[in-house]
Write a structure and sequence with these properties.
- The complex is a heterodimer of chains A (about 210) and B (about 160).
- In chain A, about 65% of the residues lie in helices and about 0% in strands.
- In chain A, α1 runs parallel beside α4 and α8 packs across α9.
- Chain A has about 210 residues and is mainly alpha-helical.
- With about 160 residues, chain B is of the alpha/beta class.
- Chain B folds into two domains: about 35 residues, no CATH class; about 100 residues, Glutaredoxin (3-Layer(aba) Sandwich), CATH 3.40.30.
- In chain B, α2 links the parallel β2 and β3.
- The chains are: A mainly alpha (about 210), B alpha/beta (about 160).
- At the A-B interface, α2 and α9 of A face α1 and α2 of B.
Chain lengths: ~210, ~160
């Protein structure tokens, strides 16, 4: 018998709590966004872009972009699971996505003082292989932007994102993690290709 | 009863995958394309200073610029103030009309050409403003320095 899958027939998760108590949620999300703002200010001070606006304002704009990226990521997974016949509550999942992005903030802050190399091994393992010297990431900026962030903190963020989806959809952790790793891989390859297309035969520095 | 969303979500996932595959195909075509080696084209239109047809005994540093790009114009201003023996030429790219001289007025004592035929982008395959293409004194292409590299290092441009 064919049963049309609708939102009503999709299995609902048994328990999918918000990441924090309701009263604390706005404060914690504000803290995460402020942390991102701080990261962007540091990046813009180190690497001026020539954008004709004050750095704090440009960083605020970048935070809005980051939030939009988080919303897009959450919406993508909601649609992915809906296509697979499961329901993932958007706003709850988005709050998890924003919260686990703190791992990236931590990673940026660990990497920031070592943009020109010389990072100790523990920082390389945590913040990403782009900090290690003598790797292909130094020769190819496209590869560095795509996969240079591979490290324990990125792995933790991917794992948390997957486990959260498993909790939200009621599906197995293996399935959710496999999809999350797959999507991460696809998006990083897309970043690699996009970088190459943007630069063409022009070399990019920063290696 | 609510409408079924699963087919729409499936269509979205298929579209996502299709865009990914399309991007991969475009990337592969771009990477395997045989781009021409840069050279000092006689077709470049002189806007100010020496003509591209005129022979020079000096090395040439060619920087592609666009008047609408503030960061690359700032880099061009910095390069025009550098002390070097190389001939510095700014190549205005990605413009179908001749560049406005007012926008280029603060590039002092520099030779400016206009790439009216889109050679830099469409024949050489280059796409980043502010890079420096280096040619030797015979006009042969040597290398391209990325935009964030130091333009002058230890007596080059001899």
């Amino acid at each position: 018998m064919n049963v049309q899958v609708t939102e009503d027939t999709m299995p609902r998760p048994r328990s999918y709590p918000w990441p924090y108590a309701a009263w604390a949620l706005p404060f914690l999300l504000l803290y995460v966004e402020w942390s991102w703002w701080d990261v962007f200010v540091g990046e813009l001070e180190t690497n001026p872009t020539g954008i004709p606006m004050p750095i704090p304002a440009a960083a605020a704009l970048a935070v809005c972009g980051k939030l939009l990226a988080h919303a897009t990521e959450a919406a993508f997974y909601v649609l992915l699971w809906r296509a697979r016949g499961a329901r993932l509550p958007f706003w709850r999942f988005l709050s998890y996505v924003v919260a686990v992005s703190l791992a990236d903030v931590f990673s940026f802050n660990l990497a920031q003082p070592f943009q020109n190399g010389g990072a100790p091994a523990w920082r390389v393992w945590l913040a990403g292989l782009h900090l290690a010297s003598g790797t292909p990431f130094h020769d190819s900026p496209a590869l560095r932007n795509a996969f240079g962030s591979i490290g324990l903190l990125t792995a933790t963020r991917i794992a948390m994102t997957g486990i959260t989806q498993a909790k939200g959809t009621g599906r197995s952790r293996f399935e959710a993690l496999a999809w999350t790793v797959g999507v991460w891989l696809v998006t990083r390859i897309a970043v690699w290709w996009a970088f190459d297309l943007i630069r063409g035969m022009s070399p990019l520095g920063g290696g | 009863m609510r409408p079924a969303h699963a087919p729409a979500a499936r269509a979205f996932c298929v579209a996502f995958l299709a865009v990914f595959v399309l991007l991969g195909v475009i990337w592969a075509m771009d990477r395997t394309h045989r781009w021409a080696t840069p050279r000092l084209e006689a077709s470049f239109v002189p806007v100010r200073g020496e003509s591209p047809r005129r022979a020079t005994s000096r090395a040439t540093w060619l920087m592609p610029i666009h008047p609408g790009c503030p960061s690359c114009m700032a880099r061009a201003r910095a390069l025009s103030g550098e002390a070097t023996n190389a001939r510095i030429v700014f190549l205005v790219v990605d413009r179908s009309q001749p560049p406005p001289l007012l926008a280029l007025s603060d590039l002092e004592a520099a030779t400016i050409w206009w790439d009216s035929g889109g050679v830099w982008r469409h024949q050489w395959g280059h796409r980043v403003y502010g890079e420096i293409l280096r040619f030797d004194s015979r006009g042969r292409y040597e290398e391209t320095k990325p935009p964030d590299s130091a333009p002058v290092e230890g007596g080059e441009g001899e």
